[in-house]
Amino acid sequence: MVQIIASDMDGTLLNDKMVISKRNAAAVKEAQKQGVHFIVSTGRAYDEVKPLITEAGFNCPMITLNGAFVLDEKGKEISAAPIPDSIAKKIMLTLKKNGLYFEVITAKGVCSDNKAKRIENFAELLASISPDTPYKLAVTLASARMELMNINYVDNYMDLVDDPKTVIGKIVVFSPEGQKVLGPIKDELSKNDNLVITSSGPGNIEINHVNAQKGVALQAYADSLNIPMDNVMAIGDNNNDVSMLKAAGISYAMGNGSDEVKMLAKYVTAPNTEDGAGIAIEEVLAKKN
């Protein structure tokens, strides 16, 4: 019997307009009504998640930044697995040396040192999710969506490292050339046993502390509620969802998911453009009753 449902956001709970569809939102609310614990498990930061779930009409705990910060319904920190400052500095120097654009996500939100690049990357994500969307429209949509988010623009990322009050949860690296450029960087950084490097799409890599993984965080959340993992459902679409799909007793891959995720998951649902997450939740709730 399902007692916890954990869902990824991008490519899963979010559709091609980067919002939670009415059917997906209704399914989440029905699960909560039936006493099932729903938790978002995402690579996004709190300030990127909160407006989206509020807009959809529900609230829930959140595994954010791939597990770097686990928060309750009010946004209060339950646990944290940040990147140590000394390691973060080395990562930043490597990325700058290779001329790559990246963003630093802290406990206070997303930090960018280039607003134009931020919009460009968001637009490319929208365009990749919905190929029929013209790029100019994607830029407009990206700009509009980011107005809902609290993005912190900084002059120098090193100032974040040097600030004792700033805790770095994740570093995300982008390249329109995808893994051709990002692959060698991933291989180089993976030599550090303190890091885990995943991806939420072909055009990025996400760098976290080794303890900041969705599966680890989901296991800890289930343990805190004394719920066995056999009664936990996870839904995801990409590489950074693998650890939680492996940990959960009930696992669903999105129809738009990667081949690795589809092979790993026990079930495959419809794509995110066709309310796949909501359909999966409806199926599990039907079996519950």
Helix-strand layout with pairing:
Elements: E1 4-7, H1 9-13, H2 22-33, E2 37-41, H3 46-56, E3 62-64, E4 69-71, E5 77-80, H4 85-97, E6 101-106, E7 109-112, H5 115-129, H6 135-146, E8 151-153, H7 158-162, E9 168-174, H8 179-189, E10 195-198, E11 204-209, H9 214-224, E12 232-236, H10 242-247, E13 250-253, H11 259-264, E14 267-268, H12 276-288
Q: How would you portray this structure in words?
A:
- The structure is a single chain.
- It is globular and about 55 Å long.
- It has twelve helices and 14 strands.
- The longest helix is centred in the middle third of the chain and has 15 residues, at 115-129.
- It has an eight-stranded mixed beta sheet, with helices on both faces. The chain has a six-stranded mixed beta sheet with strand order 8-7-6-9-11-10, with helices on both faces.
- The protein has 289 residues and is of the alpha/beta class.
Outline type: globular
Cα-based radius of gyration, to the nearest Å: 18 Å
Oligomer: single chain
Order of helices and strands: EHHEHEEEHEEHHEHEHEEHEHEHEH
Number of helices: 12
Largest beta sheet: strand ordering: 5-4-3-2-1-12-13-14
Distance between the termini: 9 Å
Low-confidence stretches: none
Which sheet architecture does the biggest sheet show? 8 strands, mixed
- Report the strand count: 14
